[in-house]
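thought: user wants a sequence for this fold. calling inverse folding tool.
action: design(structure=
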């Protein structure tokens, strides 16, 4: 089977807008803790939206994957700074906690990985989802890491079966 790469940046912009508007206009203020059932319902709706709006475009589905935790192998994301350097965040571990370190990416440099999540620091407040969490696979010399890149510098693409 032949695989074709398709652009998904506009698809992600639409998905991001729907997810943001659904939370900000319908759920914000209703969810009062991370144990609130409405948060679980929102996360279920979000997974369905992602499945319908993004993964259907590449002929796939979430299946048994844990959305927002497992990388989505069919969706690639590149951080492509335009005219000036941009700051991204690289994950690390400090004791038992995850920490994020600033990394400067200069024009002409590309950081690419697989999509994990549209990231928001305060998931219970007004959201914008200005960051994209990606996973960059490890190699013999480098450990697998997650990065947070600005949505405005992200280029999304996906692999889809070409018949």
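)
observation: tool returned 163 residues.
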């Amino acid at each position: 089977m032949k695989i074709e790469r398709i652009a998904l940046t506009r698809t992600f912009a639409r998905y991001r807008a729907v997810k943001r508007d659904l939370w900000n206009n319908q759920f914000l203020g209703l969810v009062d803790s991370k144990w609130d059932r409405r948060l679980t319902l929102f996360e279920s709706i979000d997974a369905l939206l992602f499945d319908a709006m993004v993964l259907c475009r590449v002929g796939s589905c979430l299946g048994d994957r844990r959305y927002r935790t497992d990388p989505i192998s069919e969706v690639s994301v590149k951080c492509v700074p335009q005219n000036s350097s941009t700051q991204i965040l690289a994950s690390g571990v400090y004791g038992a906690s995850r920490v994020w370190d600033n990394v400067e990416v200069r024009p002409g440099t590309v950081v690419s990985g697989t999509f994990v999540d549209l990231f928001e620091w305060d998931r219970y407040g007004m959201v914008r989802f200005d960051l994209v969490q990606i996973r960059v696979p490890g190699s013999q010399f480098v450990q697998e890491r997650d990065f947070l890149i600005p949505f405005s510098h992200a280029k999304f693409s996906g692999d889809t079966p070409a018949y």
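thought: summarizing for user.
answer: Here is the designed sequence. The chain has one domain: 2-162.
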